[in-house]
Amino acid sequence: MSTQAVGRSQLRLLGDPTFGPFFGGKLFSTMGVWIHNIAAAIIVWDLTRSTMLVGAVSVAQFLPQIVLAPYTGGLADRGDRRRQLVAGRIVGFLGSGGLALWSMNVGLTTTVDAYVTILAGLVVGIGFAIGLPAMHALLPALVEPEELPTAIALNSLPMTIARAGGPALGALLLASAGATATFLVAAGANLVYAVILAVIRIREVARRRSADRSMLAGWRHARSDAPMMVLLLGILMTGIGTDPVVTLSPAIADQLGRESSFVGVLASAFGIGSAVGFVTLRRMQVWLGLRRLGVIGMIGMAAGFLLVGISALPTMAQPPLTVVALLVGGLGMAYALTSLTTLMQQRVPDELRGRVMALWGIAFLGSRPLSAAMSGTLADLVSVEVALAVVIVVLLVGARLVHREQRLDEAVSLAASERTD
Q1: Are the C-beta atoms of 361 and 129 separated by less than 8 Å?
Q2: Rounded Cα distance, 254 and 49, in Å
Q3: Are 61 and 124 in contact (CB under 8 A)?
Q4: In angstroms, rounded to a whole number, what is the distance separating the alpha carbons of residues 388 and 397?
Q5: What whole-number distance in Å separates Cα of residue 94 and Cα of residue 124?
Q6: How far is CA 408 from CA 4, 221, 228, in A?
Q7: How many of the other CB atoms lie within 10 Å of CB of 263?
Q8: By the 8 A CB rule, do 13 and 139 touch?
Q9: Distances from the Cα of 370 to the Cα of 229, 248, 331, 363, 402, angstroms
Q10: Taking Cα atoms as reference points, which of 62, 381, 26 lies closest to residue 236?
Q11: Whole-structure pTM value
Q12: CA distances for 168 relative to 93, 133, 355, angstroms
C-alpha cells in the first residue's frame, strides 16, 4: 500500500482550508438546530404541560425528511450540491429568525404561541430536509478519495459536539436571556454556515451519470442490496432511540422534581456521552469492527434508557443516576450511528450518493416524528416508563438485525481493497 493511499489524519483534515471551514460551519449550524429544538421543547412544555405537544415539536421538525428527502436527494445528484445546502441553511435561518421576531413583538405566553413555536420548528425542518442529502453528498468534493472514511467519521463530530453543548446552551440562553435572544442565536448559527458554504473553494469531482436518474433509483439500489437494507433499518431504529432525549426530558425533569432548565442538563449528558464515544471511536472500531460496534452501541442505548426509567421512578427520583444513564445512552448512540453510517457510505456509488443518503435522512431523522408521537402519546396516556420500554425493545430488535447480517463486514474489506488498487 502506498503512503498516499492512507490520506491525511483527522487533525490535518480539520486544518484544510476547505474541509476545516465546512466542518466549523456545520458545527455552528447543528448547534443552532439543537438550541432551537431544546428551547422550543421547554417553551411548549411550560405553556401546555403536554408531553404529546412537546413531541409535536420533533414531529414538525423532522417530518419534512419523509416528505422532501426523495426530491432533495435526487436534486443533490443532479444539481449543485453547494447551492442546495446554502438554500437549506437560509430556510433554517428564516424558521428560527421568524420565531425570534414573533417572540419580540407578540411574546410566547399562550397556548397559541405554543403552536406558533411548533410551526417554526416545521420551517427549520424543511430547511434541514433541503440541505441534508447535499451535506452528505458533498463530502467527496472536500477531500481526496482515500480520505473519505476519515471525513465521514469527522462529519459526525459536529452533531456529537452539538448534542453535548447545544441543549445546555439553549436552556441557559432561554433562562438568562429569554426566548427572543435564544432563537436569534439559533438563526445566526444557520446564517454563519450559509456564508461559509458560499465562500469556500470546493474542487470539481467528476460524477458519472446514473442510467436511472429518477428519485426512486436510490431506493432501488438499496433494496437490491440486502446488507444496505439492514443498515437502513438499524439507522432507523437508532433514530427512534434518540428522540426520548428531547420529547421525554421535560416530563422526566418534572418527575425528578427539577425545574425546566434541567432539561438542558439531561440532553447535554446524552451529548457528552456521544462526545466520549467519538473520542474512543477509532480504537473501538479497530478492536471490534464496525458491525460489532454498531450492535454494542444500540445495546448501550437500550441499557441507558433502562437506567433512565428506573432512576426517574417517583419512588426513586435519583437525578445523578439519570444523568449517568444518559451518558451511557449517548456513548452507545455515537458508536451505533457512526459505525452504521460509515458502513452505509462505503457501499454507495457516488452517482447515487445524494439519493441513497436521502434514505439515511428518512431513516434517522424521518423516524423522529414517529418516535416523538409515540413517546409523547404513551407518556401522556400511560407513563414515561412505558414510553421508554417501547424504545428499548426497538433498539434491541435493531441490534439483533445488525448482529445477524454478517455480510456487513464485507463493506470494510471491499473499501480497503479499493483504496489499495
Answers
A1: yes
A2: 10
A3: yes
A4: 14
A5: 8
A6: 27, 16, 8
A7: 30
A8: no
A9: 19, 14, 23, 11, 21
A10: 62
A11: 0.73
A12: 21, 28, 34
The residue whose grid cell reads 439507522 is 235
Rounded CA separation 196/211 (Å): 34
Q: At 99, which amino acid appears?
A: L
The dihedral sign for the CA sequence 207, 78, 31, 307: negative
Contact 343, 237 (CB under 8 A): no
Q: Is the pLDDT of residue 42 over 70?
A: yes
Q: How far from chain centre, in Å, is Cα 241? A: 11
The 10s digit of each residue's pLDDT in 55-101 is 888 888 888 877 887 788 778 777 788 899 999 999 999 999 999 99
Q: Report which of 32, 173, 43 is spatially closest to residue 95, judged by C-alpha positions.
A: 32
Q: Alpha helix (H) ranges present in 138-258? A: 148-155, 157-177, 179-199, 217-223, 226-242, 244-247, 249-255
Q: How high is the pLDDT of residue 133?
A: 80
- C-alpha angle with apex 384: 381 to 387, nearest 5 degrees? 80
- Identify the DSSP state of 36: H
Burial 265-292 (b: 16+ CB within 10 A, else e): bbbbbbbbbbbbbbeebeebbeeebbbb
Q: In which band, very low, low, confident or very high, does the pLDDT at 6 lie, cut at 50, 70 and 90? A: low
Rounded distance between C-alpha atoms, residue 264 and residue 270, angstroms: 10
**Distance between CA 13 and CA 152 in Å, rounded?**
11
Report yes or no: 154 and 14 within 8 Å, Cβ to Cβ: yes
* Segment among 64-73, 171-180, 375-384 with least mean pLDDT: 64-73
Please give the Cα distance from 409 to 62 (Å, whole number). 31
Q: What pLDDT, on a 0 to 100 scale, did the predictor assign at position 288?
A: 85
